[in-house]
């Protein structure tokens, strides 16, 4: 009996960890964890979910376990995968042990879009948003290219030197430099529009909005944690761009 | 022509941001539609002179309603549709601008941008709160309907 309870807690925490790491809302994580426990026959389960760590206990025993959440990215396919598995368990299609095995496989096996497509997408996000925010058509192609390069830079820096916020700083430094260069070589018109477009795939707009949603839903700790992370990301990007402006001095 | 550009580009930017956040392939088009609806409402309201807060509030509300529709139809969690489709609305640009102005020493413009961030994010979060009210009403209504049709069957 004790073993099955341990397995249950482990399974719930694993599901919660995957969802939290990939950008789910807090209430959805709590709901999924409690539902898995309820489907295993444990009616009274307590889950306490924050953006940086998960706690789960069962009222019927003294067991409680903890899991921490280090990195937070947005990868919605994994949330769909966990959601589907938890539903399959609720419909008794798979057993608890099978659910645990399947959850372990979610991280390595979930499909993602090919890398070149992601880079091109970053460029398209940059250039299309630049246009609908009121930019000029002349800047369309430069924004596309700079957006692609900025995204590439952030990816490589994160892979090679794994220091938080440094990837954003380097990417924005590159974006700023290239934008100033492009304008001084007369292949683009407006530095501001170029930069606003090219930082669009990097800026934490969604994170800021999600933190407000968490706070309004009553999850104060998660909301402030995510908000703080978003502010520091924005700060890394802002400082990167400001560094370029200071170095090249007063180029409009 | 301008309307056409806004329609197609908001669709494109939403779909490509969906690729960056790795949403399932079969949800891409639906997400694009949600994003287009949100941006078109925001843009047209802004054009006829609505304020930042109310335009964002109504746009987020619309995005939420479209997301509810698609999440029911495709049986996927709502978050897939409403995170990428917010990308034209969310205050990422002003957030970075605020920091940049603070660093460059122009505090006044910095605070202006900071206010834009707070108002926009608050309005979007408020819009989604209204959406969850709608979701609850729809749920209750569906439960009632299933009870009427199949009184012995448990509502799912």
Automatic annotation (TrEMBL), chain A:
Membrane topology: Multi-pass membrane protein
Keyword set, alphabetical order: Cell membrane, Membrane, Transmembrane, Transmembrane helix
Membrane-crossing residue ranges in chain numbering: 140-157, 169-188, 194-212, 232-251
Species for this entry: Enterococcus innesii
Family membership: Belongs to the ThrE exporter (TC 2.A.79) family.
Domain Threonine/serine exporter-like N-terminal: from-to ranges: 11-247
Origin superkingdom: Bacteria
Keyword Membrane: yes
Predominant subcellular localization, coarse grouping: membrane
InterPro entries, per database record: ThrE-like_N, ThrE_Dicarb/AminoAcid_Exp
Pfam families in alphabetical order: ThrE
Protein name: Membrane protein
Compartments (UniProt record): Cell membrane
Source taxonomy: Bacteria, Bacillati, Bacillota, Bacilli, Lactobacillales
């Amino acid at each position: 009996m004790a073993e099955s309870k341990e397995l249950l807690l482990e399974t719930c925490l694993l599901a919660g960890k995957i969802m939290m790491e990939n950008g789910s809302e807090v209430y959805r994580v709590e709901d999924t964890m409690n539902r898995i426990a309820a489907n295993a026959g444990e009616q009274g389960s307590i889950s306490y979910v924050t953006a940086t760590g998960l706690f789960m206990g069962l009222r019927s025993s003294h067991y409680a376990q903890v899991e921490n959440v280090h990195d937070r990215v947005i990868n919605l396919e994994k949330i769909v995968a966990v959601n589907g598995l938890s539903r399959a368990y609720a419909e008794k299609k798979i057993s608890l042990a099978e659910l645990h095995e399947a959850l372990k496989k979610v991280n390595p096996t979930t499909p993602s879009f090919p890398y070149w497509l992601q880079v091109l997408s970053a460029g398209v996000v940059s250039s299309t948003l630049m246009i609908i925010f009121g930019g000029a058509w002349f800047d369309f192609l430069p924004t596309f290219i700079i957006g692609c390069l900025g995204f590439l830079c952030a990816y490589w820096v994160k892979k090679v030197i794994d220091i938080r916020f440094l990837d954003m700083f380097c990417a924005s430094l590159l974006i700023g430099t290239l934008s100033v260069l492009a304008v001084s070589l007369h292949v683009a018109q407006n530095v501001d529009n170029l930069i606003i477009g090219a930082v669009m795939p990097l800026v934490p707009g969604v994170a800021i909005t999600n933190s407000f949603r968490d706070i309004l839903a009553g999850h104060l700790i998660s909301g402030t944690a995510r908000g703080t992370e978003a502010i520091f990301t924005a700060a890394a990007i802002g400082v990167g761009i400001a560094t370029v402006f200071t170095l090249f001095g007063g180029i409009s | 022509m301008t309307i056409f550009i806004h329609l197609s580009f908001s669709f494109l930017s939403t779909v490509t941001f969906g690729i960056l956040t790795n949403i399932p392939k079969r949800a891409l088009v639906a997400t694009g539609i949600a994003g287009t609806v949100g941006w078109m409402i925001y843009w047209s309201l802004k054009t006829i002179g609505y304020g930042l807060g109310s335009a964002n509030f109504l746009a987020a509300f619309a995005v939420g309603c479209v997301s509810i529709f698609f999440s029911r139809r495709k049986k996927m969690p709502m978050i897939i549709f409403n995170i990428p489709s917010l990308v034209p609305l969310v205050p990422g640009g002003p957030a970075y601008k605020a920091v940049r102005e603070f660093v460059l020493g122009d505090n006044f413009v910095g605070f202006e941008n900071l206010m834009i961030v707070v108002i926009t994010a608050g309005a979007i979060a408020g819009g989604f709160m209204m959406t969850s009210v709608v979701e609850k009403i729809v749920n209750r209504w569906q439960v009632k309907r299933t009870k009427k049709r199949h009184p012995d069957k448990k509502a799912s």
